[in-house]
Structures are given as structure tokens and as C-alpha cells.
Specification:
nine-stranded mixed β-sheet; four-stranded mixed β-sheet
Length: 461
């Protein structure tokens, strides 16, 4: 006879311990260790191995050539930037998790989604379930953003069974749950928002979506580290994981795909949040470029890839003489370590010294650049402000700079230059092995940083 045993496993990292603990010793997550029953077979102790009885499946396995793939056709939501990230739209029966910090605009975005969904075709109904606000509060936001429609249904509920009853009564094709951490299952132990409750609620809503073909969008909270709150299995249960991010001091919002079973997971959508609601930005490059008649020393234009989308961004640098033993270095919107590396390379390889200058480097309009392809633009902006000579007008610079001063190739140069040419740039300083160049823009290949500075900055020596 099998002897019952117990083991304890962390739902976040799957680490197993012999006894229950409040904090996982491997990943440090609190409240994620659950008891897992184990049956130790007698035959295993004898060295024979555990035996399992075969069961006749109710549905036989089907050759992949006979499986109908048309059931997973994405339906457009009417919000273009969201459809871009999702890979064309929402697939019926799919579960999408949208995570983001408080106040970033998740509820405003999803209210626009249900509004556009109800307008999409006659008879389509959308159900918006909120566990954080009252129905009256959601209606006030809908009035302010113009998202009122007769086929959008509101329910202020936090009980899972009641939510399932609303779904049965309304008969929607799209359900928004805001948020999954506020829902509770009465037949499951644990506090609301805890690991056990969140997993049970997500499992039930996922089963509903798969069985009925209803698309479900879940709103998820994030931790102070920026990760999705709740057990790690939450991200494995859903089909799509999206991260909605933005700066409180800027109206720009970025929607990034983290996981997508129906399309690419590296797409990025751009939105602008304002008093009247949220609006998609199909051409975000113009936000990150400062329009001026004449070139100014200390500026350079880089072309970065955010997912599959090329975006132009302006990098500004300022240097001022300093009498301090350790002059100040301030960086905004860029990786501080890469800026420090460019300062070291400029001093060592090009003999441009910043040790007696305060250095300030920033991007325009709150753009964040972490890609190595902006190395050359950072170096050009720094050299330009030190020489008080502006970069040649109509020029973009693309390339990663190594510690020896060489300019290295980056990916998708053709797509980057096509975007630069569309916005009116005519010259591009690029690495030697740049690949195909689109028509309408002149590529100037360079081998090292010194050559790049001479081509980008007139009269540089």
C-alpha cells in the first residue's frame, strides 16, 4: 500500500523544501510555499519502479494536418496600437494579462477597448468587471473619455462566482476583470490577493475562456521591482502577458509584449494619455526630436529599435568647467554605465578630456534608451558640446562603440535608415559592414570613433 508523504514547493520558482516555511529560501518570495502530496509506491522501494494504469482517452489524438487552425483568428479590437502588440487583435478564448503600475492608465486603456469592441459589430457585448471601483466611478470616467456605449456592461463585483453569473446573464464576447488581485473564490482558502486566491481565480477564468470562447483581459498589479504581482504560475496560465509602463511626468505610455502565444512577443505600442482619454501614437519618432531651425552644439540623433519598431531619439549633452576634484556626472534617459564608458573611450582613444568638466547627458521628451546602438550618438553629442561645434544638419549616427574605439555593427540598419529617411534625414554615419542601404539617404561607413567624429562634426580635429 502506498505511504502518504508531504512535500512543500514554491509556486514562483518550484524550489522544494522538506517543511513549510513562510519565505522561499531560493527566490525569497513570501507566502508562495504550498504543500504538495506525494505517494511513494511500494514497488519503488523494492527497485521495481512505479506502475501507472493506462486510461482510454475520450478524444483520440489527431494528426496535426487535420487540426483546424482557423479557430485562432485574431479579431481587431479597434485600438490600433494594442492590436499591433497582440499580433492583429484578440483571439477568441484567449486570456490576456495586462500589468502596470498604479495610475499608469490601465483602466483607461481597457475602457477604450470595451468601447471599441462594442462598436465593432452589431450584437457584440463587452462586460467590464471592476473590483476596485464602483460602477458609478467607471461611468464617470467613460463620460470623460467618450467611451459610453449601450452594449458595454458594468459590474462592480469581487466574488468569482458572482462574476461567472454575470457572464452567463450578459453573454459577452469580451470580459475585462480589473483587477485579478481583487477577485476572491469563496471555496478556496487564503486572503484576497494572496498566492492561492490569485491562482484559483486565474485558473477559473482561463477555464471559462477556453470552454466558452470568450476573450478575457485581466488587469494585474506589479511589485515595487516592476514584476507581475502574484505567483509566477500566473504568467504561465495566460496566453498573453503585456506590460503597460510610463513616467508620471510624461503623457507617453508604452505597451510592451512579454509573452504572446499567438504572435511576436517583442512588439511595442505607443500611447498618449490625456484628460480626454488615451490615444494611440502610430508615429512616435516625432515626439523624441526637437524641431529647431539651426543645429545646436551638444546634440546628436540616434535611431534605436524598440522591439520591431525603429524610433529616432535626440541625445543632448552639456559640459561646463568645474573646480571640484570630482566633477558631477548626471544622466537622464540613458544607461549611466554606457555614458561613463563613452567618456573613457573619448579620453583614451580620441584625446578629448572631460576630467575637469561637469557632464550632463539626457534624452528628449522622456525617451529611454538602453540599446548599445546609441553609443555613437552619445559620443558625438559629448564631443560636439566640448568642441562647441554642432553636428552636421540632417545626419543620424548609428553604431556600437567598443573599448578600443572601433565602431561595431548593429542589427536592422536598413529599417533604421528607412525610418530616418522618412523623417527627412539625408546622411547617416554607420559601421563598415552596414548591409543594404535604402534609397534616399547617404551612408557614410566608418571604422573607428575618430573617423566617425570627423564625418559627423564639421571641422573636428
Amino acid at each position: 500500500m502506498a505511504k502518504p508523504k508531504s512535500s512543500y514547493r514554491c509556486s514562483s520558482c518550484q524550489h522544494t523544501v522538506a517543511k513549510w516555511v513562510g519565505k522561499c529560501p531560493d527566490c525569497g518570495t513570501w507566502g508562495s510555499v504550498d504543500e504538495v502530496p506525494i505517494l511513494a509506491a511500494v514497488g519503488t522501494a523494492r527497485g521495481i519502479g512505479a506502475q501507472r494504469a493506462a486510461m482510454l482517452p475520450s478524444t483520440p489524438a489527431t494528426p496535426i494536418t487535420q487540426v483546424d487552425g482557423t479557430t485562432n483568428i485574431a479579431l481587431p479590437t479597434g485600438v490600433g496600437e494594442l492590436d499591433r502588440v497582440l499580433g492583429g487583435g484578440i483571439v477568441p478564448g484567449s486570456v490576456v494579462l495586462l500589468a502596470g503600475e498604479p495610475g499608469v492608465g490601465k483602466s483607461t486603456l481597457l475602457l477604450e477597448v470595451v468601447h471599441q469592441w462594442a462598436r465593432r459589430a452589431a450584437g457584440e457585448r463587452a462586460l467590464y468587471v471592476t473590483g476596485e471601483e464602483s460602477a458609478g466611478q467607471v461611468r464617470l470616467r467613460a463620460d470623460r473619455t467618450g467611451a459610453v456605449h449601450e452594449r458595454v456592461y458594468l459590474a462592480s463585483e469581487s466574488d468569482l462566482a458572482t462574476v461567472l453569473g454575470h457572464v452567463e446573464q450578459v453573454g459577452p464576447t469580451l470580459v475585462i476583470v480589473d483587477s485579478v488581485q481583487t477577485m476572491s473564490a469563496t471555496d478556496v482558502d487564503g486572503v484576497i490577493g494572496g498566492v492561492t486566491q490569485v491562482r484559483a481565480v486565474t485558473t477559473a477564468l482561463t477555464s471559462l475562456a477556453k470552454a466558452s470562447g470568450i476573450a478575457v483581459l485581466l488587469v494585474g498589479h506589479v511589485t515595487k521591482e516592476g514584476a507581475v504581482a502574484g505567483p509566477r504560475t500566473l504568467e504561465h496560465l495566460v496566453d498573453v502577458v503585456l506590460n503597460f509602463e510610463g513616467d508620471r511626468h510624461s503623457t507617453l505610455r508604452m505597451l510592451r509584449g512579454i509573452k504572446n502565444r499567438f504572435g511576436a512577443s517583442d512588439e511595442v505600442g505607443c500611447f498618449e494619455l490625456h484628460e480626454d482619454g488615451i490615444e494611440g501614437i502610430s508615429d512616435p519618432s516625432g515626439l523624441f526630436l526637437h524641431n529647431r531651425a539651426n543645429a545646436v552644439p551638444g546634440t546628436a540623433v540616434a535611431v534605436t529599435m524598440d522591439g520591431k519598431r525603429p524610433m529616432l531619439g535626440e541625445i543632448q549633452a552639456l559640459t561646463t568647467p568645474s573646480q571640484m576634484p570630482t566633477p558631477r556626472r548626471a544622466v537622464s534617459g540613458l544607461d549611466y554605465n554606457r555614458v561613463a564608458m563613452m567618456l573613457a573611450v573619448l579620453e583614451s582613444r580620441v584625446k578629448k578630456y572631460f576630467s575637469k568638466h561637469e557632464v550632463y547627458v539626457s534624452t528628449v521628451a522622456g525617451m529611454r534608451i538602453t540599446e548599445p546602438s546609441a553609443d555613437l550618438a552619445i559620443a558625438v553629442a559629448l564631443a560636439s558640446t566640448l568642441e562647441t561645434t554642432a553636428m552636421q544638419a540632417g545626419t543620424v549616427v548609428i553604431g556600437e562603440v567598443g573599448l578600443t574605439g572601433e565602431v561595431r555593427r548593429v542589427s536592422n540598419i536598413g529599417r533604421r535608415l528607412a525610418e530616418a529617411q522618412r523623417l527627412g534625414f539625408t546622411r547617416a554615419v554607420v559601421p563598415l559592414d552596414h548591409g543594404p542601404i535604402p534609397a534616399g539617404i547617404k551612408a557614410i561607413p566608418v571604422a573607428d570613433l575618430g573617423e566617425a567624429l570627423r564625418e559627423a562634426i564639421p571641422g573636428f580635429h
